[in-house]
Predict the structure.
Amino acid sequence: AVAAKVVVGFMLVYLVPALGSSICDAHSGACDAPRLDADDGSAFLQAALSKEQATVSRKHVSSDRSSSNMGGGASAEESPYCQSLRERVEAFNESHPDPVSFVDVDHQENGLEARALLPNTTVVLARYKENTQWTDSLAALGMNVTVRPAEGLDEIIAYAKYWVEDYEDMPLVSVFLHGNAPQDWHSPRNILDIVERINATKLLQLGGYASLNLGTYLGSSEALGGQSDLFMKRMDCDWKEDLWVRLLKQRLQLEEEGSFAQWGAYCCAQFAVHRDAVRRFPKEFYVSLLQRLEQPQPWSHQSWQVIGRDMEYLWHVIFAETPVMEPSYGEGDFTDA
């Protein structure tokens, strides 16, 4: 999602979830529901749901096609901070018309993601046109493989629909992969082997989330000029009333403005998530997220403005509750040898 890629060495980092904890069986990997501590913001979650659920609807989810989101003039309530971001995004957009290609790859039409699960796992593929016969090897291991149609410009809608539709019945571990995962430029050559060796207990000890693209770390220092400003503008201005953004900032105690000025993560949205990590937020969180992601995007998949590029640098924040700058780790931190 940015102009360059940085190869990061593997480091052993055990990340304990910042809020709440779980009890796991060392052999089966099964975990009790996460315990919410008294000061973890759970009171806010309940208050927000009871107070705002009736009003958080699509009227709160303005399209990025609108002038308010893409810089069509300041609103009466626009803060100086948001005005500055809007003006910088407008200036970059005028000087860098779409499409903008970020990486020299030929997978721009893919936009799909899959999920794979081990003994207690499900594989969901968000598929455009790719040949997904490569998933036969996962099915042969007993994993449940499901193909979902990719919608919009990338994988994010298929992901969010899974969390909404399967929230009550999801397996212990969900693995999300691109439809052409074994050949994607950002995929490690042994990505299927990594999926087969995921250890649910170790994954939860890591925070509940692990990227599968551990060789490609990207951050704000590699971003094209408008990408960081647009990311901040969306999270702090355009989307600030979305229920999922409010709950995320409250739970992680993020500032209302400026928390996303410096960001970084393993790129390209292939990752494993523990069920407990998903359920740290209520289902309504993912309903609100899906409403945002389903909004029309008047850009190509290659554009620097695509919402999926923002989400690549939010998944670890949502699921592992780690800093906006994702710490580095290696496959041994969440897999068996």
DSSP finds 13 helices and eight strands in the chain. Strands lie at 114-116, 121-127, 144-149, 173-177, 209-211, 217-219, 264-266, 271-274. The radius of gyration is 19 Å.
